[in-house]
Write a structure and sequence with these properties.
Structural class: alpha+beta
Number of domains: 2
Helix content: 40-55%
Strand content: 5-15%
Number of strands: 5
CATH architecture of the largest domain: 2-Layer Sandwich
Mean pLDDT: 87
Low-confidence stretches: none
């Protein structure tokens, strides 16, 4: 029971780390945690794993982690959209706002995009021009609501005005406050023209 629990906990922690730390760092963390869980299980079985096992497991599971991140669209957005998000972050910090969010979508494969039932067929995510973030709080009041969306939107408008090459869509999904996943999601892209959409206006 304890051996199985170690593996299950390792997988859960590895997945969370891979989600919060995307890219090579996320893949390495995913590989490291799974590797430690497997080696810990071997120790409980009375087997002493060698350094070769550690390297082998790290390579295999880090590669798996990277592959999963790629398939699920957690990597690969173009540098311009990353730059736009960084500039928005800097703008918020300069006004003493919080920047507590996690990137939940970048470049998607056509296959994964089709799996997402509400995703546009010609989504800019497939071109690597879009990023979705899951926002926790912006104004520091401990909750996420339309005030936070307005603050983000204002920062986005300023960045687009100062950097016309970064113009794109700003979208939110704050239609149903009880849907704790979608209502926290903000879409930012660099399609070339400024667009504002909001699911609660539908």
């Amino acid at each position: 029971m304890m051996k199985s629990l170690i593996l299950i906990l390792g997988l859960i922690v590895a997945t969370i780390c891979g989600f919060f730390y995307t890219g090579i760092i996320g893949a390495l963390l995913f590989g490291l945690i799974i590797t430690l869980a497997i080696l810990g299980r071997r120790l409980l079985q009375g087997k002493r794993p060698s350094f070769l096992y550690f390297i082998l497991y790290m390579v295999v599971f880090s590669s798996i982690g990277y592959g999963l991140m790629t398939f699920f669209g957690l990597l690969g957005a173009e540098s311009n959209v990353h730059r736009k998000l960084s500039l928005i972050e800097e703008e918020l910090k300069s006004n003493n706002y919080e920047t507590s969010w996690v990137i939940i979508s970048q470049k998607r494969s056509e296959t994964f995009n089709r799996i997402l039932k509400n995703s546009a067929k010609d989504s800019h995510h497939m071109k690597g021009k879009a990023i979705d973030i899951y926002v926790f709080d912006i104004d520091g009041d401990g909750k996420f609501n339309r005030t936070d969306i307005n603050i983000l939107e204002k920062a986005n408008r300023k960045i687009e005005k100062e950097n016309p090459e970064l113009k794109g869509a700003f979208g939110d999904y704050f239609k149903d406050e009880s849907d704790h996943f979608s209502c926290h999601m903000i879409h930012i892209d660099t399609r070339g023209k400024s667009i504002r959409y909001s699911k609660f206006d539908e």
